[in-house]
Amino acid sequence: MKILLVGAGLSGAVIGRHLAEAGHDCRIIDARPHIAGNCHTERDAETGVMLHVYGPHIFHTDDEGVWDYVNRFARFLPYQNRVKTTAQGRVHSLPINLLTINQFFGTTLRPDEARAFIESKADTSITDPQTFEEQALRFVGPELYEAFFKGYTEKQWGCSPTELPASILKRLPVRFNYDDNYFFHRFQGMPQDGYSAMVAAILDHSCITVELNTEYRPEMAAEADHVFWSGPLDGYFDYRLGRLGYRTLDFERFSDKGDYQGCAVMNYGDRDVPYTRITEHKHFSPWESHEGTVCYREYSRAAEPGDTPYYPIRLVEEKALLEQYIDLAHATPGVTFVGRLGTYRYLDMDVTIREALDTATRFVAADGDMSAFAVSPV
Ligand SMILES: Cc1cc2nc3c(=O)[nH]c(=O)nc-3n(C[C@H](O)[C@H](O)[C@H](O)COP(=O)(O)OP(=O)(O)OC[C@H]3O[C@@H](n4cnc5c(N)ncnc54)[C@H](O)[C@@H]3O)c2cc1C
Q1: Residue 110 is among the residues annotated as catalytic for this protein
Q2: Residues contacting residue 38 through CB under 8 Å, at least 6 positions apart
Q3: Which end of the chain has fewer CB atoms surrounding its CB within 10 Å, N or C?
Q4: Ligand 1 pocket, 368 CB below 6 A?
């Protein structure tokens, strides 16, 4: 079959590769001048540092099949995400762990003592937390909430934590040991030559053609037997029912010599610091050495038409609009909506790859008979 894949990010590349290996003819287009979508990495012209152009990307998974898959196309080197935060004039370790608690409160508590201490701080008058703020106060009490959650959340989401649902903070966000590895997953690492090199290897197949700087046009679908769409779901329908809400990010680049901040990611929890974090990219490749260094200050705001959509908002209003777009999608034969934008969900890279592999496998097994969604967006 002739397959058109819109988007050369992980979704388009992984589905395209699987279908190409099954003998289908895959045309992959992307509006951007590069492959790899939001995982795109490139060397900085001034310093030679490998940049995570759309924000920091750390690969982590418990899915052995996905880990084997990415290692087929790239050499992964060990990398663990250890984040710090500057709040109220001091630097602390994240996620909140025993070191954070002991340094923040000036204590020397052991795990059980710290658990009891944090429980004593929790606001037990809140019996049925409805908002993010109530949930955080119920879990950790006012001091940790103010320092680590309130200002950061206001900046990240552009609204008060009293307007966000409690479900955003599902579990107690505190560790009662000194483990500061951000992720729990068994497999964690960074592709030695960056994500774009990995995606280039996935796309390197005789049945795949890639066209960059190429915006989708409806007549392209007429030339294909099936379309996989990894662009925005509402974008496919020209936003005719309105726009699904996203947060976008602005990155302010600056360069320096040597080591600017001593770690890859430094969060800023205080409300009066306008950015949410600073990323220093050379720390993502600790096996390389560069004289210069490049950092991004990261600012979050509501996405406007023309902005890069980053985080789907998915509150009550957006979910109602999403339902309407899902109905439109079901009434559109020959198109399957995939990936983070096509299904309007935040997806980590490993989940994106797993879903792409499963979608392509089902497509091949069903001889191309596939509905609008292989994975439900709700
Ligand atoms: C700030 C940030 C940090 C992240 N960090 C991590 C992390 O540390 N670890 C992790 O596992 N995951 C992380 N992720 C998630 C990761 O970015 C996604 O899993 C991944 O990008 C999803 O790939 P995709 O192919 O579905 O979407 P995308 O990468 O967005 O690719 C979609 C592509 O479609 C193209 N496109 C859209 N519309 C059109 C059109 N009309 N015509 C032609 N082309 C079009 C776009 O240009 C884009 O290249 C992060 C995400 C964000 C936002």
Answers
A1: no
A2: 9, 54, 55, 57, 308, 310, 340
A3: C
A4: no
Whether 362 is catalytic is no
The verdict on whether 82 is a catalytic residue reads no
Which pLDDT score is estimated for 41? 98
Span from the CA of 9 to the centroid of ligand 1 (angstroms): 6
Question: Catalytic residue at 204?
Answer: no
Q: Which strand (E) or helix (H) includes residue 277?
A: strand 277-280
Q: Contact, 24 vs 227, CB < 8 A? A: no
What does the block give as tokens for 278?
A: 């600073």
Choose one of 6, 32, 38, 341 to mutate for the ligand 1 pocket test, by most ligand atoms within 8 angstroms of C-beta: 38
What span, in angstroms and rounded, lies between the C-alpha atoms of 172 and 84? 19
Atom of ligand 1 nearest to the CA of 216: 42
Q: What 3 state SS string does 106-123 have? A: CCCCCHHHHHHHHHHHCC
Q: Whose CA is nearest to atom 53 of ligand 1?
A: 310
Q: Which of 138, 277, 340, 345 is catalytic?
A: 277
Phi, psi of 41 (to 5 degrees): -125, 145
| Atom number of ligand 1 nearest to Cα 38 | 29
- The helix/strand/coil state of 196 is helix
Query: pLDDT tens digit string along 329-347?
Result: 999 999 999 999 999 999 9
Q: Give the pLDDT confidence of 126-156 residue by residue, as tens digits.
A: 999 999 999 999 999 999 999 999 999 999 9
Domain ranges of the chain: 2-81+186-245+308-365, 96-168
Distance of CA 223 to the CA centre of its chain: 33
Which of the residues 146, 180, 280, 298 is marked catalytic?
298
For the entire predicted model, the pTM comes to 0.97
348 is catalytic: yes
CATH fold of 2-81+186-245+308-365 reads Rossmann fold (3.40.50)
Q: Let me know: does 180 contact 82? Beta carbons within 8 Å.
A: yes
3-state class of 322 per DSSP?
A: helix
Structure tokens at 66: 């996905």
Closest CA to 24 of 35, 32, 15: 15
267: left (phi over 0), alpha (psi -120 to 50) or beta: beta
